[in-house]
Amino acid sequence: MGVAAKIAPSMLSSDFANLASEAERMLKFGADWLHMDIMDGHFVPNLTLGAPVIQSLRKHTEAYLDCHLMVTNPLDYVEPLSKAGASGFTFHVEVSKENWQELVQRIKSKGMKPGVALKPGTPIEDVYPLVEGENPVEMVLVMTVEPGFGGQKFMPEMMEKVRTLRERYPSLDIEVDGGLGPSTINTAASAGANCIVAGSSVFGASDPSAVISLLRSSVEESQHKS
Ligand code: DX5
Ligand code: ZN
């Protein structure tokens, strides 16, 4: 037994001009969640989408929208994103040291699932208080590339963080994001990740549904072994 596998295609690799049909296609191919990368051009050197796009997409799907906030001031996004129909709200620990308690409480009060993400250079200990506090986050996202862009190379050295988290929190949702695909999934799944974000490997595949089912079976098989 383990925590449920969640396969989350990153819509950053989709055709933004056809977001609704791209989302529908991924769900038909077996995606559990749709990963939405929200960037502000400050926290990361790229600008993507925000609440208006989430709101537009929400009109076309009931899917779980797994929002990854690569922004300097996540607190400002809680209200607009909840109104827009976001499901998960994952903020970065690097910008939330001072106000994570208020942030988590506001996210939960809006009915969204709070998660915390950390960049490759951030030590895993930094998220412990957020998982162990009175008002804990419900997911930890371990970045396996520097946030900002799709199509980068997976950093296997991040698996130490995943292993440490899985040993400490057997039932926590642990997400990995960046460079995941058929050649890296076994490394991540055997370290204990259960929520898998994949952009270029899914959207760039000739058979995306085969990639999604391979990602899922790798997570499920790793759990049977442990
Ligand atoms: C990067 C984003 C990722 C990205 C992953 O900052 O957080 O979600 O879309 O893309 P791939 O799977 O192509 O590395
Ligand atoms: Zn992401």
UniProtKB/TrEMBL annotation:
- InterPro entries (UniProt xref): Aldolase_TIM (IPR013785), Ribul_P_3_epim (IPR026019), Ribul_P_3_epim-like (IPR000056), RibuloseP-bd_barrel (IPR011060)
Binding sites annotated in the UniProt record for substrate: S10, H68, G148, F149, G150, G151, G179, G199, S200
In the UniProt record, does the keyword Isomerase occur? yes
| Residues that, per the record, bind a divalent metal cation | H35, D37, H68, D177
EC numbers listed for it are 5.1.3.1
Kindly state which reaction or reactions the protein catalyses.
D-ribulose 5-phosphate = D-xylulose 5-phosphate
Family matches, as SUPFAM superfamilies: Ribulose-phoshate binding barrel
**Which PROSITE patterns does the UniProt record give?**
RIBUL_P_3_EPIMER_1, RIBUL_P_3_EPIMER_2
Q: Does the keyword Chaperone apply?
A: no
* Cofactor names: Zn(2+); a divalent metal cation; Mn(2+); Co(2+)
One Gene Ontology cellular component term attached to this UniProt record is: cytosol
Record Pfam families: Ribul_P_3_epim
Q: Which NCBIfam families match?
A: PRK05581.1-4, rpe
Protein name (Swiss-Prot/TrEMBL):
Ribulose-phosphate 3-epimerase
Source organism of this protein record: Prunus persica
